[in-house]
Amino acid sequence: MKPFFMVVYIIYSPGFDRFYIGQTKDVFSRIDRHNAGTEQATKPYLPWELILTIEKESRSEAVILERKLKNLSRERLIMFIDKYKPL
What we know:
Shape: globular
Strand order of the largest sheet: 2-1-3
Number of helices: 3
Helix content: 25-40%
Low-confidence stretches: none
Number of strands: 3
CATH architecture: 3-Layer(aba) Sandwich
CATH class: Alpha Beta
CATH topology: GIY-YIG endonuclease
Strand content: 25-35%
Distance between the termini: 25 Å
Largest sheet: 3 strands, antiparallel
Mean pLDDT: 95
Structural class: alpha+beta
Number of domains: 1
CATH superfamily: GIY-YIG endonuclease
C-alpha cells in the first residue's frame, strides 16, 4: 500500500455552527492557519475544531472527495461525519 499523500478535512466552528471542508498535505499546519485568521473564507468564524480527516493517496482523489463533500446538504454532511468519525 502506498503512503498517504493528501488529507481531506472537515472543521467546525461551534460559535457559528458552521462547517468547512478542505484538503491539504499537512492538516495540522492548515488548521493552525485557519485559527490564526489568515484564511479569508474561515476568518469570520473563529475558532475552528478539527472533527474529521480522510486520507487519500493522491491530490486528484482528495479534490474529488472534497468537491463531493462540499456539494452535500448540511444534513447529509452531518450523516457522513457521524458515519466516519472515529469513536
